[in-house]
Design a protein that fits this description.
Length: 105
């Protein structure tokens, strides 16, 4: 199923518009396609940032953060490691992690 496309209007810097045009010419695509690709990348990065921040501030478990970022648990563990975010190990957090794992089975 193809998701419906809607029109969104935004004012951008001239330099950004030129960069979009350059990418479109380089890839042989139209500007709308390039903007959709760039927006998808930015949204994924934002989700990931929010998920990592939620673990850092202990507002979400690692499992929940992985769901938020739409990645696997193992990928989230790797990102925690590469971003120097300690794995939450309090008894309460560990209990919640185990409960989430059990509830998925």
């Amino acid at each position: 199923m193809v998701e419906e496309l809607v029109t969104v209007s935004a004012r951008v810097r001239r330099s950004q518009a030129r960069e979009v045009e350059r990418l479109a010419a380089e890839k042989g695509a139209d500007k709308s396609e390039i903007i959709r690709e760039l927006l998808a990348i930015a949204l994924k990065e934002q989700k990931l940032k929010e998920a990592l921040d939620s673990v850092r501030t202990r507002k979400a478990t690692v499992w929940k953060a992985a769901e938020m970022a739409e990645i696997t648990y193992r990928e989230m563990l790797e990102l925690l490691r590469t971003n120097n975010i300690p794995f939450p190990l309090s008894k309460e957090e560990l209990r919640r992690e185990v409960e989430e794992i059990v509830s998925r089975q």
